[in-house]
DNA sequence: GATTGACGCCGAG
DNA sequence: CTCGGCGTCAATC
């Protein structure tokens, strides 16, 4: 009997401006994880393979990886969320980082934030009827689909950009690529 | 239970 | 403005 966790995923990559993007797919063609851009191909692939050790590299679907890189660099593109395997808890019980309903609620709420806009961790918590601001941050930190699920658009209530898995500088860069102004003390400068 | 957070709020310097 | 300190609650051990 085949364990679900043994599925072999395929990883496709795309390079732009010396940054390597990687996307992992399950055998049903859904995206199981997106890697933030890395300086080398090996690092980009590792960001996927550390959650899904059984994989092969593929050149199929790297148009998607290319699209994701365009979004990273600030293009305002629509992305079909149906391409994402949001049900990771079921499909990949061991590797999942979206196990609980709380985490899924948070991620789905973040998915609604439009291009060029930001919300605070507190606002996300409020919209899912919770006061667990810190837990919202922790859940967003596990986002398997960065860039597409715009976790970089969630900031602190004091106006600072806050933490980010790929480092605060990357978060700043992504926000600036969307036209959001950020001053030297890492605060969003009001764009009115 | 105890510890740990990509947080929030307030008060003291 | 920076820093503690405490509040808060989901996840993890």
In short:
This protein is 31% helix and 16% strand.
How would you portray this structure in words?
The chain is globular. The strands form 2 sheets. A 4-stranded mixed beta sheet has the order 3-2-1-4. A two-stranded parallel sheet has the order 5-6. It contains 7 helices and 6 strands; from the N terminus they run βββαβαααβααβα. The chain has 192 residues and is of the alpha/beta class. The protein starts with 8 loop residues before the first strand and ends in a 15-residue tail after the last helix. The chain has helices spanning 41-49, 62-72, 88-91, 101-110, 121-127, 133-141, 168-177, and strands at 9-16, 19-25, 31-38, 55-57, 119-120, 154-155. The chain binds a DNA duplex (13 and 13 nucleotides) through residues 99-100, 102-103, 120-122, 125, 130-141, 151, 154, 156-158, 161-165, 168, 171, 185.
- Return the structural class: alpha/beta
User: What is the chain-wise order of helices and strands?
Assistant: EEEHEHHHEHHEH
Q: Which strand order does the major sheet show?
A: 3-2-1-4
Q: Return Rg in Å.
A: 16 Å
Rounded mean pLDDT score = 91
Proportion of residues in β-strands: 15-25%
Can you tell me the residue ranges where pLDDT is under 50 for at least 5 consecutive residues? none
Largest sheet, described in full?
4 strands, mixed
Strand runs, count:
6
Give the CA-based shape.
Answer: globular
Question: Which percent bin holds the helix content?
Answer: 25-40%
Quote the distance from N terminus to C terminus. 59 Å
Tell me the number of helical segments per DSSP (H or I, 4 or more residues long): 7
């Amino acid at each position: 009997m085949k364990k679900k966790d043994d599925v072999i995923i395929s990883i496709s990559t795309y390079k732009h401006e010396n940054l390597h993007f990687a996307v992992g797919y399950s055998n049903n063609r859904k995206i199981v994880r997106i890697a933030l851009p890395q300086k080398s191909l090996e690092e980009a692939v590792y960001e996927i393979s550390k959650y899904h050790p059984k994989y092969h590299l593929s050149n199929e679907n790297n148009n998607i990886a290319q699209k994701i890189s365009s979004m990273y660099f600030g293009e305002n593109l629509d992305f079909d969320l149906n391409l994402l395997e949001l049900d990771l808890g079921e499909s990949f019980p061991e590797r999942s980082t979206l196990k609980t309903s709380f985490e899924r609620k948070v991620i789905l709420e973040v998915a609604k934030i439009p291009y060029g806009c930001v919300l605070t961790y507190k606002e996300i918590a409020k919209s899912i009827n919770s006061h667990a601001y810190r837990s919202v941050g922790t859940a967003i930190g596990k986002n398997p689909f960065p860039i597409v699920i715009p976790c970089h658009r969630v900031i602190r209530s004091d106006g600072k950009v806050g933490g980010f898995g790929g480092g605060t500088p990357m978060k700043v860069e992504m926000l600036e690529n969307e036209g959001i102004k950020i001053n030297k003390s890492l605060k969003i400068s009001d764009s009115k």
